[in-house]
Specification:
The complex is a heterodimer. Chain A is mainly alpha-helical. Chain A has seven helices and one strand, in the order ααααααβα. Chain A has one domain. In chain A, helix 2 packs across helix 5. The longest helix of chain A is centred in the middle third of the chain and has 22 residues. Chain A starts with about 40 loop residues before the first helix and ends in a 6-residue tail after the last helix. Chain B folds into two domains: about 375 residues, FAD/NAD(P)-binding domain; about 160 residues, 2-Layer Sandwich (Cholesterol Oxidase, domain 2), CATH 3.30.410. Helices cover about 25% and strands about 20% of the residues of chain B. Chain B contains 13 helices and 21 strands. In chain B, the strands form four sheets. In chain B, strands 1, 2, 7, 8, 9, 10, 20 and 21 form an eight-stranded mixed beta sheet that branches. In chain B, strand 20 and strand 21 form a beta hairpin. Classes of the chains: A mainly alpha, B alpha/beta. The interface between A and B is large, with 74 and 80 residues.
Chain lengths: ~180, ~575
């Protein structure tokens, strides 16, 4: 978008929603945490790692877990998010376990990727009418965290810090992907 | 401070003092130093050296801390409640170039968004770089309509100075041959994208309204002079507000201060808050200024035969108001009682946005730091463009682009990720910039009851848009919508979210130029009527606001006033 200074309303993406079928995401195996959480307990952080990879899985490009998005979210829950958001997100990460146990008799990390995805689909549906909803918060932070990460910006999107020329009309197939910036 | 005499006084004496180092202070420094004057620039904020003091210029998105670079709410609330009102400008990438509101208070009797950057270079680091000329439609309007006072100059007086300034700063743009928006000295224009080209064709055909690419102070074909200053071609990063490591957009830091420095005649003193103009009442001249050292809080004095006040409209006005004496009990040069009155800005936050169907195989490459411009098409002096419901006019800025990854997308998982890894639909948006009439009841006053952390009085703002602007806004919204509809765009939505003064960041008019000392503060050469060795050349000088972005006019007025000052000094007039 042309980023002249009064043009920020151009990012009014919420007006444009299209119907799409939630992906049948494949959850990853339980990871070991390679980082020290600040806002979350170790268990909550492990669940978050699985959730971010269900939201932005590894495909032909890296997934959100590999991109360090869980640590990004934890850090921002600790020192950035407003308290209501933070508490909603943290409580949601505990609810994952409670709901998994109620439905399958096992904690979230122990149920199958398909069962994990099914739970998230329920939350995604719920989040359409209930705000703030932990899943909407996590989905937003995962998306921003991912496309702002080096793997997300440079591999899933196309990153060019110094474009040089501006060309106004270029076939999309020549660019291939969304611009990271 | 104690009386300074002899050698100590000589060391504090210059040919000229320039108050402020922003877009006009930089020009005054360049012009005066190039003409051989020893110049002292006093800047209230810290030093910002070109390139080396742009800490975020090369920062990648993964190197910042917070989502979208948005600062934590608690920090915004504590330190930037006003600066954050733009909604876009203040981020992790730019926060070091904005003032902290808690340390720089003022009083809003009426809402007034005072967006400030206190540093060497001032807001020339942060400006939107849109550069347009006023025309005689603007310079004659007050006299013709009996609004405010007549400008003491006409287009012919300033045209050569526009040329001169444009040649130095570099303005990319397209000549259009419109009398209401005179062409200038342009470097090659930036390109429109596919949708913008279609919108241009549709709008020109359906309404006869011209659509051009923004005229922006970016180098697209740098001259020898610009290259020699270390400036280079625009790289289309659109990260301008962080400071440009290529020196590709014009700022004091990248251009005027560099040129001034090279004369060997310039001294910049940062962290120096000018508090008072010193008046020699017998001679009827200013002899220098008092400053407060920002760090030590010590008062000091500097002396010069010529003083250029370029502190930005409201801070220059503050300085004049704070400089009282027996001769000027109500503020320096303020017998007219116009000092602080006639606050103007441009009113905005009104226009239209729309979805653009199709063009899904089309994209663009590079981030153009510029958009479309639709020059004024109302009240041009002919019957066809005349409006009965308001006087003056407005222009639009905006453009088209595709949504990026940061858009709403339902679901989660691989399919959504693939979807967001491709650009979204095209959107179109234009927003108006409308002229604000000078009104003496729109004013800022000095509030001695409320002082800042230095113990200095603060400003109180009492200014609003009124009937003429409100009537104009209806047309601004409706005309934007009809153009979007005629172009075949869908879901066209008009918007008008209100426009407190200040948000245009074009505050001006509070020490206006005029033809009569009884009704204006400055004469045709930006001299204070009652003290001719003091020139005020920033936005404070403006007699009317036009609807175009004003910085180019401030720069042209400054260069013109500098030439006048040097000649007047030679002739012994000041």
């Amino acid at each position: 978008m042309p980023q002249t200074r009064r043009d920020t309303l151009l990012t009014f993406g919420a007006l444009w929603t299209a119907l799409a079928v939630p992906a049948a995401a494949a959850a990853q195996a339980t990871p070991a945490l390679g980082w020290a959480p600040k806002a979350l307990s170790a268990d909550q952080a492990r669940r978050l790692e699985v959730v971010v990879d269900l939201i932005m899985p590894a495909t032909d490009t890296p997934g959100a877990r590999e991109a360090g998005v869980a640590a990004f979210i934890d850090r921002n829950l600790a020192d950035w998010a407003d308290p209501l958001w933070r508490d909603t997100a943290v409580a949601g990460l505990d609810r994952l376990d409670a709901d998994a146990k109620a439905a399958h008799g096992q904690p979230f990390l122990a149920i199958s990727p398909a069962q994990q995805a099914a739970l998230l689909r329920g939350y995604d549906e719920e989040a359409k009418t209930r705000r703030p909803h932990f899943f909407a918060i996590l989905k937003d932070l995962t998306t921003v965290g991912y496309f702002s990460s080096e793997p997300g910006a440079t591999k899933a999107a196309r990153y060019d810090p110094v474009p040089g020329d501006y060309r106004g009309c270029v076939p999309l197939k020549e660019i291939g992907r969304v611009w990271a910036l | 401070m104690a009386n300074v005499t002899g050698k100590a006084k000589a060391e504090r004496t210059y040919d000229a003092i320039v108050v402020g180092s922003g877009i006009t202070g930089g020009w005054a420094a360049k012009e005066l130093s190039e003409k051989g004057l020893k110049v002292l620039v006093l800047e209230r904020g810290p030093m910002v050296k070109h390139i080396e003091d742009y800490p975020t210029a090369q920062t990648a998105p993964w190197e910042i801390k917070h989502p979208r670079g948005k600062l934590p709410d608690a920090e915004l609330k504590a330190h930037y409640p006003v600066q954050n009102r733009t909604g876009y400008a203040l981020t992790e990438y730019t926060q070091h170039f904005f003032v902290r509101d808690d340390e720089n208070p003022y009083t809003e009797d009426k809402p007034f968004d005072w967006i400030r950057g206190y540093q060497v270079g001032g807001r020339s680091l942060l400006w939107a770089r849109q550069s347009y000329r006023h025309s005689d439609l603007d310079f004659e309007a007050n006299a013709r309509q009996g609004v405010g006072v007549d400008w003491p100059i006409r287009y012919a007086d300033i045209a050569p100075w526009y040329d001169y300034v444009e040649r130095f700063i570099g303005v990319s743009g397209q000549a259009e041959g419109l009398p209401q928006l005179p062409d200038g000295v342009f470097q090659p224009p930036m390109e429109m994208n596919c949708v913008e080209k279609a919108f241009k064709a549709s709008t020109e055909k359906a309404f006869g309204r011209r659509v051009t690419i923004g005229r922006a102070a970016h180098l697209t074909a740098p001259t020898e002079e610009q290259l020699a200053l270390g400036r280079g071609k625009c790289q289309h990063r659109n990260m301008c507000m962080r400071g440009c490591p290529f020196g590709a957009y014009f700022s004091s830091n990248s251009a005027t201060l560099v040129a001034a420095e090279r004369t060997g005649n310039l001294k910049i003193r940062p962290n120096a808050i000018v508090t008072t103009l010193i008046l020699d009442e017998k001679a009827g001249k200013a002899t220098g200024v008092k400053i407060l050292d920002e760090a030590t809080r010590q008062e000091e004095e500097f002396y010069a035969g010529v003083i250029f006040v370029c502190a930005s409209a409201l801070n220059s006005t503050w300085l004049l108001m704070n400089s009282t004496s027996r001769r000027f009990p109500n503020g320096f040069g303020n017998q007219s009682d116009q000092l602080g009155r006639n606050v103007m800005d441009h009113h905005l936050n009104v226009g239209a946005l729309a979805e653009v169907p199709g063009y899904l195989d089309e994209y663009y490459s590079g981030r153009r730091p510029n958009g479309l411009y639709i020059p004024r098409f109302r009240n041009l002096g002919d019957a066809a463009s005349a409006r009965k419901d308001y006087i003056r006019g407005f222009g639009y800025q905006g453009g088209a682009g595709r949504l990026g990854w940061d858009r709403e997308a339902p679901g989660f998982g691989a399919e959504r990720k693939a979807q967001l890894s491709q650009p979204g639909p095209w959107l179109f948006r234009v927003g108006g910039f409308g002229e604000v009439l000078p009104n003496p009841e729109n004013r800022v006053t000095l509030n001695r009851a409320r002082t800042d952390k230095y113990g200095l009085p603060t400003l109180k703002m009492d200014a609003v848009i009124r009937e003429n602007e409100l009537a104009m806004r209806k047309d601004m919204q409706a005309s934007a919508m009809e153009m979007a509809e005629a172009a075949g765009f869908r879901n066209v939505r008009g918007f008008d979210t209100g426009s407190p003064l200040g948000l245009g960041i074009h505050e001006m008019g509070t020490a206006r130029m005029g033809r009569d000392p009884k009704t204006s503060v400055l004469n045709a050469h930006n001299q204070v009527w009652e003290c001719r060795n003091v020139y005020v050349t920033d936005g404070a000088a403006m007699t009317s606001s036009s609807c175009v972005n004003p910085s180019l006019t401030y720069m042209a007025l400054t260069a013109r006033a500098c030439a006048h000052a040097v000649e007047a000094k030679k002739r012994g007039e000041i």
